[in-house]
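quick q for whoever's on today - can somebody do inverse folding on this one?? i tried earlier but teh output was garbage lol. tokens:
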């Protein structure tokens, strides 16, 4: 494991810590898209089906369990916690995320590494993660009052993916790994979706203003 991969994992983990801090301490999920959180839960549940059949390292297994557990916990809090669920911006979180699930599943059936259940679901999880942030970005556009924890959560998610791309480039040139076009292209698409957010995030940070995304 190189420094960029570790930094990406820690940034991803930190984004979840920030979100859980908002939900647990503030008892609020205002500005957070339940649709995006459900998509991430599906991503991790379908990607890590090999958790109990393939062992790589303690670190690898632990991270898989953390991502599965936290994603399911966040969805539970937003749907069923008697206080947190009342702060959910349901009227603004209107993206039809089931369309993304259907399109990504069809794409996985058509384009995959090999046609078996584990590989098709792995490809499906890669495609779905690339677009899972869309409901969240749409919600941020519609929200007038965006708190810092929500903004920082989204920023860390984008930073994690950007660091993973640097990790792939590093491994390609230094370690000589083969080009894995399914995760690479999906990763570039995912990072591109964050580009507009990054621009306004940095702009608001420099001007010390509240983040506002254009319609």
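ok took a stab at it. sequence:
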């Amino acid at each position: 494991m190189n420094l960029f991969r570790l930094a990406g994992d820690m940034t991803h983990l930190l984004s979840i810590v920030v979100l859980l801090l908002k939900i647990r301490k503030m008892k609020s999920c205002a500005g957070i898209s339940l649709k995006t959180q459900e998509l991430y839960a599906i991503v991790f549940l379908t990607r890590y089906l090999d958790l109990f059949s393939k062992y790589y390292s303690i670190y690898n297994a632990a991270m898989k369990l953390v991502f599965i557990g936290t994603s399911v916990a966040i969805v539970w809090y937003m749907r069923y916690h008697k206080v947190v669920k009342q702060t959910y911006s349901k009227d603004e979180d209107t993206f039809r995320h089931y369309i993304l699930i259907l399109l990504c599943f069809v794409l996985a059936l058509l384009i995959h590494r090999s046609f078996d259940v584990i590989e098709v679901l792995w490809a499906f999880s890669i495609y779905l993660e690339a677009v899972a942030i869309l409901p969240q970005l749409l919600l941020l556009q519609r929200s007038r009052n965006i708190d810092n924890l929500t903004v920082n959560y989204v920023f860390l998610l984008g930073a994690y993916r950007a660091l993973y791309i640097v990790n792939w480039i590093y491994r390609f040139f230094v370690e000589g790994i083969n080009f894995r076009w399914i995760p690479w292209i999906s990763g570039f698409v995912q990072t591109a979706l964050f580009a507009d957010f990054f621009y306004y995030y940095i702009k608001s940070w420099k001007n010390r203003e509240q983040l506002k995304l254009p319609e």
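fwiw Residues 88 and 187 are 29 Å apart (CA to CA). also Helices lie at 3-26, 34-47, 58-80, 97-110, 117-131, 134-142, 148-175, 181-207. so keep that in mind when u check it
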